[in-house]
Fold:
Amino acid sequence: MALRTGTSSLTRELNIAQKCAVRQFATEARPKQRKTVHPPRRTYLHQQYESIVNNDRAMFIFQHNNLTVREFTALRQELSRLGAPAKLTVLRSGVFNSVLRSTKYANLEPLVEGGPTCIFHTNANDAEHPDLLKKAMAVLGKNKKMMLLGGKLDDTLLTHDDVNKIVQLPGLPQLQAELLGVLEAPGRKLLSTLDSPARQLHSILDRRIE
Structure:
């Protein structure tokens, strides 16, 4: 009886020790998850790109082929002479694509993966600067090392051809004036038609009086 009791106690102690060992092994085998800490420069660029993508209404992506610092500086100076808030920013593709993936413009990501890229971006409105996009594309298009890939305007994604078509459109004030002329034309024609019998009657009465 004493032997059986001792055996049962030993079995229980072995089971408890085995469970503790398994629990300790599981705890030690599970690595601690560390929070990723990005370098300050990457964090700054991420915030900068995020602001550009979400806040600037026009953003056009270019591939630049071995453009020198002097050439970049010359392009930026020409853009500054346009008298509008417009910038040319060189991209770090990995950081920029991580920003795009978290926005509704994620389909632009393939445009940034092909080589060294930069973006022309502005938040100027058409009413104040109706010809800005056209003039800016003319400045950038003069340099053969700059190749337009596409971009976005407001919430619309654009291909290379879309950008070229849009920048050729007249400014908003001119479009409004043309639309107003189209809308007023039928009214002027109707007024002329209604006024014609009255003028004819007035002419007949004048002749009879004479």
Observations:
- Residues 1-6, 25-29 have pLDDT under 50 and may be disordered.
- The CA atoms of residues 111 and 149 lie 6 Å apart.
